[in-house]
Design a protein that fits this description.
The complex is a heterodimer.
Chain A (H helix, E strand, L loop, with lengths): L4 H23 L8 H30 L9 H20 L11 H19 L2 H5 L12
Chain B lengths: L24 H5 L2 E2 L1 H6 L4 E3 L2 E5 L2 H12 L7 E5 L6 H9 L25 H9 L3 H8 L11 H14 L2 H4 E3 L1 E8 L4 E6 L10 E5 L1 E4 L6 E2 L2 H10 L5 E3 L5 H9 L3 E5 L3 H17 L4 E6 L17 E2 L2 E2 L8 H4 L1 H7 L3 H11 L8 H13 L2 E13 L6 E7 L4 E6 L1 E4 L3 E2 L6 H9 L27 E4 L15 H17 L8 H12 L5
Parallel strand pairs in B: 1-6, 2-8, 3-4, 3-9, 4-5, 9-21, 11-19, 12-13, 12-19, 13-16
Antiparallel strand pairs in B: 6-7, 7-8, 10-20, 14-15, 16-17, 17-18
The chains are: A mainly alpha, B alpha/beta.
The structure holds flavin-adenine dinucleotide.
Chain lengths: 143, 522
């Protein structure tokens, strides 16, 4: 991938909406929790954080990318950055930030976050190019 | 020589001074032609809304995108002197020691037969070879492994399949294009000389609203001192160009111990070095190799940590001929935002001579230095002449420390990869002389970001160019697989804006991709 900063942010937001939201709606049905409402509160807050905090993360990734001669972002990093992002979101949710969503079930969080992250990552490594034929030439920019 | 047997431009013999044969003066001088002018000469006219001249990989990319955009094959004419779109590429690739099993210098996503690059070359190789290795490599590149690059054989086979899928044979018209001239009233005429005996007339004029030229290289150029040697001593055997056939060098090296001087330090030099050393290992050849560097890179280059290219042992290292983001990321945007000299300087800096830091190549050279069969020299050549006994070539080099040294070699391989000037190409020279098109800083066709040739418009017609002839523009990577595809997409978008075809949107893209997957006609 050879994203630009704007492209990174646009792609992230688009995929959270197009992949993250529907997947969360479905996978939450299978996750443990006091009630479906509680589960939804936790999982949707998590992906909201992926979208919002992601802007900050993208700034950092973009800065790191400047140290690469090819100005690319290796596929593997796209996957591994799920670790730092997931850890931060987990800690925030446990601390009741931005809202208190009750106790966080670690397994449920892991299943949800890892599956969303992997799906989004897979989408960027193929399907996005089929849906948006110019996307890869524009550094991930959609508009 | 009559123009009917004019060789393909790639041989570099069809320069502007080639005889114009028997074309009437009225046509040669007239910068715009009309139907009666052609009629008077008995030249039949064939209509095609869109003509692409060249028929190589650039034309394939163009026709492919247009077919995906819904243009029927009957509305596209590919005027070409080759039978299959990969033929010219295959030819230079095999001369420069890229055999079918060798890996190219473009990434897994520069998929010549699939504009979406999905599935990528790596995935397809994994499936066909039944091994996860290529996928693992492309997942971990370039951090844990080298960039995945496809084997040339895979590219050729898949290009053939795609050509068939889009109806290449139906679009292809064999022959050599002598000129593209403006048509009075709009659009263009492309004057084609079909192969002798294949058509009732000696020439055919293709009347087109849109013309795209992708004629590849004007030819290859020797380093000036080597050209002088060849001209002076008429020795075409010992001093050879890496892009031209030079198999006799390797054959002789197998028969007797020879010294080969390799000039240049880019990717072509690397491939030649690999071949020479592979042969030593495989056939027991006792070849001695001397490599002459003009600019010796002894470490990473660049003042700033954010602008520093790896290098060492003489070579500048980068995986591709430009930083990867020049194809579609921040480097593309950066270059597109500049003009004139500023742009040219940046592109020179990002491109320039470089090779791929392959572990296998570095190991070979390290071994060669250790065992004494590979040596490096740095300096400027002051003369090249035959030895006294006439059996070898003596290169005199002014070394970097001011002293002089002579290098005696049985063969000199020019691997500097210089390209001939645009004006060496007869069709290009004619365009510049008669059609008002302009050249850029780099001496190539000056093109808009849409790849329309500046100064070439003939309303409602448009003239487009991609590939080597369009270098020096807003898009530095235009002479590469992915660059040719990018150009094709931009051109198709420009055509769509004029109502010539559909703009490839989300629905069409997905639908066409599904057709590709099932290998159904576009
Ligand atoms: C040795 C080498 C290796 C390369 N490796 C890679 C790589 O690994 N990855 C990558 O992305 N890019 C690579 N490239 C760059 C580029 O992708 C190829 O050169 C590609 O073939 C360019 O396509 P083209 O259509 O411009 O030219 P070509 O494929 O050469 O096609 C042009 C055709 O036009 C014909 N023609 C010219 N004049 C006329 C005329 N007047 N009438 C009719 N026909 C005419 C020519 O005969 C030729 O067949 C490489 C280039 C070289 C030289």
């Amino acid at each position: 991938m050879t994203p630009t900063l704007v492209g990174r942010i646009q792609t992230r937001w688009f995929l959270v909406l197009a992949v993250g939201v529907p997947w969360t709606a479905v996978v939450s049905l299978a996750l443990p929790g006091a009630s479906l409402g509680d589960v939804y509160a936790a999982t949707f807050t998590a992906i909201l954080l992926v979208a919002v905090l992601g802007v900050g993360w993208e700034l950092i990734y973009h800065a790191l990318q400047q140290f690469r001669w090819d100005k690319d972002w290796p596929t593997l990093l796209g996957l591994l950055t799920g670790i730092n992002e997931g850890a931060l979101i987990y800690l925030l949710l446990r601390a009741g930030v931005p809202i208190d969503v009750g106790p966080i079930d670690t397994t449920a969080f892991l299943v949800h976050f890892a599956s969303v992250w992997t799906l989004v990552w897979l989408a960027t490594n193929g399907p996005m190019r089929v849906v948006f034929i110019r996307w890869r030439f524009r550094g991930g920019r959609l508009i | 020589m009559s123009d009917e047997v004019a060789p393909p431009a790639a041989t570099g013999e069809s320069g502007p001074t080639a005889p114009r044969a028997d074309l009437p003066e009225a046509l040669i001088a007239g910068s715009a032609w009309s139907e009666p002018m052609l009629g008077a000469e008995g030249i039949p006219i064939v209509d095609s809304p869109f003509v692409t001249v060249g028929g190589g990989l650039g034309s394939l990319a163009m026709a492919d995108v247009l077919r995906i955009a819904g243009v029927p094959a009957s509305d596209i004419a590919v005027l070409t002197d080759i039978a299959r779109p990969d033929e010219s590429y295959r030819h230079v690739a095999s001369n420069s020691q890229i055999s079918d099993g060798e890996r190219l210098r473009s990434d897994s996503g520069s998929v010549m037969d699939n504009i979406w690059a999905f599935p990528s070359y790596a995935i397809r190789e994994a499936v066909s070879d039944r091994t996860p290795k290529p996928v693992w490599q492309s997942l971990t590149e370039p951090l844990l492994s080298e960039y995945f690059t496809p084997r040339s054989g895979q590219v050729y086979a898949s290009v053939g399949r795609e050509a068939d899928r889009i109806g290449w044979e139906a679009m292809r018209v064999g022959g050599h294009v002598r000129m593209v001239r403006r048509r009075l009233g709009g659009g263009y005429f492309a004057l084609l000389t079909p192969p002798a005996g294949s058509a009732p007339t000696r020439r055919v004029a293709y009347r087109a609203r849109y013309v795209h030229v992708a004629v590849g290289y004007a030819g290859h150029k020797f380093l000036p001192d080597l050209q002088k040697y060849r001209d002076t001593y008429q020795d075409l055997r010992r001093v050879v160009h890496a892009y031209e056939q030079h198999g006799h060098v390797y054959e002789e090296a197998e028969r007797r111990p020879v010294t080969v001087l390799v000039r240049g330090s880019g990717i072509v030099a690397s491939r030649v070095l690999q071949r020479l050393i592979d042969d030593r290992d495989a056939t027991g050849a006792r070849t001695k190799i001397v490599q002459l560097f003009r600019n010796y890179v002894d470490g990473p280059q660049g003042e700033r940590a954010t602008f520093r290219r790896p290098g060492g042992n003489g070579f500048a290292f980068q995986a591709f001929n430009l930083p990867k983001a020049a194809w579609g990321g921040q480097v593309r945007e950066q270059i597109a935002g500049l003009e004139g000299k500023e742009r040219a300087d940046l592109v020179d800096h990002l491109g320039g001579t470089s090779t791929v830091p392959r572990r296998a190549w570095r190991a070979q050279l390290a071994r060669g230095s250790r065992e004494g069969f590979y040596e490096q020299r740095v300096g400027r050549v002051s003369s090249v002449a035959p030895s006294v006994d006439g059996r070898s070539v003596v290169t005199t080099v002014a070394l970097s420390d001011g002293s002089e040294e002579t290098i005696e070699a049985d063969f000199v391989i020019d691997a500097a990869g210089l390209e001939a000037d645009l004006t060496e190409h007869r069709l290009m020279a004619d365009l510049i002389e008669h059609s008002g098109v302009r050249t850029n800083q780099r001496g190539r066709l000056d093109v808009e970001p849409t790849f329309e040739v500046r100064g070439g418009r003939n309303e409602p017609g448009r003239l487009y160019a991609s590939g080597s002839m369009a270098l020096g523009g807003h898009y530095a990577a235009v002479d590469s697989f992915l660059g040719l595809q990018y150009a094709a997409l931009r051109i198709a978008d420009d055509l769509a804006a004029q109502g010539h075809c559909a703009r490839i949107g989300v629905r069409r893209s997905i639908a066409q991709w599904l057709r590709w997957v099932r290998n159904r006609p576009a």
